[in-house]
Automatic annotation (TrEMBL):
Residues 327-500 form the DNA mismatch repair proteins mutS family domain. It holds the Pfam family MutS_V. This is DNA mismatch repair protein MutS. One of its GO terms (biological process) is mismatch repair. PANTHER family: DNA MISMATCH REPAIR PROTEIN MSH1, MITOCHONDRIAL, DNA MISMATCH REPAIR PROTEIN MUTS FAMILY MEMBER. It comes from Pelotomaculum propionicicum. One of its GO terms (cellular component) is cytosol. Signal peptide: none annotated. It comes from the Bacteria. The gene is mutS_1.
Length: 503
């Protein structure tokens, strides 16, 4: 049995490798805040959220596949949580049946496997009941296939058959084993046989049993104090039931793997439910994005906000409306503390959320899929003095260039400002020009006027210039508007805000 709630044709690999730039993405986009809100203190939910968001998807069909499943989850949150709780119950109850050292023996393996399978049968019945009662409430392809699978595989005949086998394997009337004498008169070819009379629907009466023709048998009685004899008999029994015990153990492991995978895949959607409910409490909107192929240039949205900032402050955040369709470069300039870095972070977060099949923090959002997402943010000074700040920035940039591919996205936040204006502008110009030639989409927050205005003067059709809005009295609206780069970042506003304007 397969869940297939993350991919149509394969399981979700929780142990797969994360991208090499995961640390930079987590730091620059403050992803830990997002993961914590999805996990609500649950370490397993945290790891699944981290894996799903950072792994991303480059396939349009798979993104839409997950979106539709998530829509079903949002429409039926209690049912999803019930199924998730069932998977946890199965795993926890399995742990309580573990016999440790004694599971080295076939008889112990057999008995513990019977106990585990009996637990799993009861839990599978709960899943079947949910499928029967609620399948018609789900519209996504993923859940339709999931519930159809449950109804097909877990029918009444299946449960009756399994229950019958489990009862037989308890060997209440003893164990029937055949064997042969091998080399040196040692026993070989031990085979567990079906007990006589089990093929009959009804038990024989006592009269029939008395007068029935019997096969010749030899009976050996072992004294209660004969420990060696009892041990030998137990070893003979273990040899006979060994294959059955292993088969039953493998069956239990197979069902357990199904529950583990179902728990893992549902954990992503439970995390999304947790996040959705948290944002609803704050009053922030979310929407399902419209992704398009990587080769297109689409990036337009309404009311896009930094979800991590909203979660940290627990209040509504100013959103932005931008139409960057057909643009390869978005240059962002303007006043200090005007919301530029927050806006840049919202771009990265929305892209990651879209490409793992989630909703996004916006009233509406559409973007092309990116093959990879990279960030290049300014860092604090190297306290070990192993390198200068500019050397460190260029080193990180070199690492990114080694890995970046066409149709990727790169977010720059005040990069190359560790040197003088002219040198920093020239470095930035050459790097951005090369990236654009490689069909890399770039968002660049900068205070380098010479660099920004140099691109503005070129009047490139594939470039959009945004500026952090500032009112005449110096107040910031935290809105980004179309605008030519200015030569000042209005640092004087910050000075006056801290020290006052004086007399």
């Amino acid at each position: 049995m397969k869940a297939h709630l993350m991919y149509k044709d394969r399981d979700f690999d929780l142990k797969g490798e994360l991208p090499s730039n995961r640390q930079a993405l987590t730091q620059d986009l403050e992803l830990s805040t997002l993961f914590k809100s999805m996990a609500l203190g649950d370490d397993f939910l945290f790891e699944v959220a981290k894996k799903a968001v950072l792994s991303g998807l480059n396939n349009l069909d798979t993104i839409l596949y997950r979106q539709n499943i998530l829509k079903d989850c949002l429409n039926n949150p209690s049912i999803i949580r019930d199924i998730y709780d069932i998977t946890i119950e199965s795993i926890e109850r399995k742990k309580k049946t573990y016999f440790g050292f004694f599971n080295r023996y076939p008889s112990s393996i057999l008995h513990s496997s019977i106990d585990v399978l009996q637990i799993f049968v009861d839990i599978l019945k709960k899943l079947r009941i949910i499928a029967d009662a609620h399948a018609d409430k789900f519209a996504s392809e993923g859940f339709r296939l999931f519930f159809t699978m449950l109804k097909k595989e877990l029918g009444d005949e299946y449960f009756a058959c399994v229950q019958n086998h489990l009862e037989e394997l308890k060997f209440r009337n003893g164990v029937l084993i055949s064997a042969e004498l091998g080399e040196g008169n040692k026993g070989s070819n031990y085979i567990l046989r079906k007990p006589q009379g089990k093929t009959q629907d009804k038990k024989e009466s006592w009269v029939q049993r008395i007068f029935a023709k019997k096969q010749p048998v030899f009976t050996i009685f072992i004294s209660e104090r004969d420990e060696s004899g009892a041990r030998a008999l137990s070893e003979l029994k273990d040899k006979g039931i060994n294959l059955v015990a292993n088969a039953l153990s493998q069956s239990a492991d197979h069902i357990l793997s199904f529950f583990n995978m179902l728990r893992t895949e549902l954990a992503f959607y439970v995390g999304c439910l947790n996040l959705y409910e948290r944002l609803a409490q704050i009053g922030e909107p979310v929407s399902f994005p419209l992704p398009v192929d990587a080769g297109e240039r689409r990036h337009s949205f309404k009311g896009l906000y930094d979800v991590c900032l909203a979660l940290s402050l627990e209040q509504k955040i100013v959103g932005n409306d931008v139409n960057a369709d057909g643009k390869d470069l978005v240059m962002i300039t303007g006043a200090n503390q005007g919301g530029k870095s927050t806006f840049l972070r919202s771009i990265g977060l929305a892209q990651l959320m879209m490409q793992c099949g989630m909703f996004v923090p916006a009233e509406s959002f559409s973007s092309n899929i990116c093959q990879n997402l990279f960030t290049h943010y300014k860092r604090e000074e190297d306290t070990t003095m192993n390198s200068g700040k500019l050397d460190e920035e260029l080193g990180r940039m070199s690492d990114i260039v080694d890995k970046i591919t066409p149709n990727s996205m790169l977010l720059f936040n005040e990069s190359f400002a560790a040197t003088n204006e002219r040198e920093g502008s020239e470095i930035a110009r050459q790097i951005i020009s090369a990236l654009l030639e490689r069909r890399v989409k770039v968002f660049f927050v900068t205070h380098l006027y010479e660099f920004a205005h140099g691109f503005y003067d070129k009047k490139l059709k594939n470039t959009l210039f945004l500026r952090a809005e500032r009112q005449n009295d110096g107040r910031r609206t935290f809105k980004l508007v179309d605008g030519e780069p200015l030569q000042t970042s209005f640092g004087e506003d910050l000075y006056n805000g801290i020290f006052g304007t004086g007399s």
